[in-house]
Amino acid sequence: MSVHLLVVKLGLVRFATSLLVVLLANVLNRVLIVDLSVPAAQVTFCFAFQHVMTPVGLVTGYFSDARALWGRHRTPYLWGGMLLAIAVMPFFPGWAQALGAAPGQRNLIWQGVILFSLFGIGTTVSATAINALLVDRLPEQERGPALTQVWILTLGGFIVGSFFISVLFPNYDPQELDRLFALITLAVLAVTLWGAWGVEPPSPPEPSRGEAEVGLGPSLRFLMGNGQTRIFFGFLFASIFFLSLQTFLLTAYGGEVLSLPVAETSRFGIYVSYGIILGMSGLHLLLSARQRAGGRLVLALSLVLGGAAFGLLSLSSFFPMAKGALGALWLLGFSRGIYNVGLSHLTMNMAHPAFSGIFMGLWNLVSGLALAAGEMTGGFLKDFLHHSLGDLRGAYGWVFLLEGLGLLCCLIFLWPLNLDRHRRSLSLFLAGRRPEAEAGGGARSESLSHDDR
């Protein structure tokens, strides 16, 4: 299979995942908060558990490094994760109706926690396997661009999903909600079956994996003991935390502050996704032409633009204006696109096939916990500020403003980050483990001599 086809097929699996996320993030949360009047804190609490489950990705990443299942290391986890996420989707509409009829009922809250936890396990396991496959099967200089292309297809899922949902579900209707979930879930299953088929050839005998035998303990001790990886994961957590405060508030903001119907607020995802694709595509082409990754500068630019977008969104909340909010969504998407490109290059430059599953599992763990913390905090902040200020517009406005300021504070993580130092430490670590690796053939070693950009 060609590299291009591999990237497209893996991207389509992430495309399918995005369709499921759109159903939950752009439809179900809006219906719960606006149409069923469930407190935002309860909704974001349940939704956030899809990210609390990300430690599972670290465990499955380690096992996918260490041993094959049915002759393959990654695809059993890819298939299993996606099928689990698909299997729980039909249960969400009924749960939402029940919670809307009895907000705050504990058994319903815990039902939601279980559903989102299972969904989170599925998406985390499959995403870890996909990212590890990119590290396994591509040379280092091609991984960052490949991950960018996968993310572009991921965002295509948000755009396509948001468009069809705005057509199929223009206004809240309980029966139509069930039908919508059924249709999208069947479409996701079909796309997943084609995308995941044949993306990993059968593995050679286990000894040839060599450096994958480094082990979970030594790998984690290296990653957590290396100052550069600590800075990287600190930046990852902080930036994603502040970017995610608004995750389940934007569509509710459109309904409660701008008085827009479901069809209009479901398009918020389209506006943001268009901006992301514009930012990602333009910057991806620029970096490909220059053959440079420009990581820190790119990420710094994304944080500044993101801060400006949240400032405009805050202003559009204090003084409601739909056009200002629309411009803020485009700018937010554009900044996220630049952020994604910078982060994809930086992540893939720091990963290594010796422990790609472990690294990507840890990456998903940190980003997932940041998402969970951000999403929970966003809902609680909105409800707390609304109760304290007695002003719904002001509650949204202060949350958005806090996000913008938080992104600007994340700049402090970028200045001490140096890939040359990370690679020197990685080379020394692998050299210390090399006798074990060479006993197995050292098939997965690679050069670490790239310059830091």
Spell out the blueprint of helices and strands:
Elements: H1 3-35, H2 40-52, H3 55-66, H4 75-88, H5 92-101, H6 106-137, H7 140-168, H8 174-195, H9 216-225, H10 227-243, H11 250-256, H12 262-265, H13 268-290, H14 295-318, H15 322-350, H16 356-389, H17 392-409, H18 419-439
Helix pairs in contact: 1-2, 1-5, 1-6, 1-7, 1-8, 1-11, 2-6, 2-16, 3-6, 3-16, 4-6, 4-8, 5-6, 5-8, 6-16, 7-13, 7-15, 10-16, 10-17, 13-15, 14-15, 14-17, 16-17
Can you describe what's shown?
The chain has 453 residues and is mainly alpha-helical. It has a single domain (8-197, 212-439), classed as Growth Hormone, Chain: A. It contains 18 helices and no strands. It has helices spanning 3-35, 40-52, 55-66, 75-88, 92-101, 106-137, 140-168, 174-195, 216-225, 227-243, 250-256, 262-265, 268-290, 295-318, 322-350, 356-389, 392-409, 419-439. α1 runs antiparallel to α6 (106-137), α5 (92-101) packs antiparallel against α6 and α7 (140-168) runs antiparallel to α15 (322-350). The longest helix has 34 residues, at 356-389. It starts with a helix and ends in a 14-residue tail after the last helix. The model is unreliable at 205-212 and 434-453 (pLDDT under 50).
Q: Brief overview, please?
A:
The chain is mostly helical.
Question: What are the main properties of this structure?
Answer:
453 residues; mainly alpha; Growth Hormone, Chain: A; 18 helices; 78% helix
